[in-house]
Amino acid sequence: MTEEELKSIEMWQERVQLLYDGEKCNGCALCVQACPKEALELNPIGASVKEDISEPPLKFDKDKCVLCGVCAAICIKKAFKTIINGEERLLIVENEGLPKEMEFEGKISVEQEKCPKLCDVCEVLCREDAIKITKEVEIDLDKCTYCGACALGCPSSAITLKRTKIVCKKDPETRIMKRLREKFLGEIKLENFDKDGEKEE
Q1: CA-CA distance, 6 to 130, in Å (whole number)?
Q2: Is the pLDDT of residue 1 over 60?
Q3: Which of 66, 131, 174, 200 is the most buried (most CB within 10 A)?
């Protein structure tokens, strides 16, 4: 058997795990949009993060998942990890399919009159401490990452968030990156998602 054939066998012996930490997840649904196999769906975000229900913000279809690691690469809160032979690695980043880190620019607004009294879902969902509720909802734009969790979790659709640009140090010209631009940019609202959690075109 040639050395090349041996390497091929070794490749198939790799043990790959995808780990998900529901406590870190804020339900922003970037991973739901990014998953090329549509293996992820949203649970009720606000109820999950506030622990009104026992389920985490996401649910998985293990039969669809191919352990590609796209979700781990784009997760702002690092709620996902891919473990290869016991080592945390992101092959899609190592092979320059996706950037190591990406940020968003955008616009966000709140229709204060729509906000239900005593509701604090957006404040609880925001892990960046960018939202404070005093007499009304206040957003610190310097802290906001435009992840979209607040807009998706708002029970009265009072928050409108639009991502206008993806910012990364090295922007790979790959098919998956082109697809993510199409999925991520634009207005993010819960009604823009179909029953499977996928953003409609």
Answers
A1: 52
A2: no
A3: 131
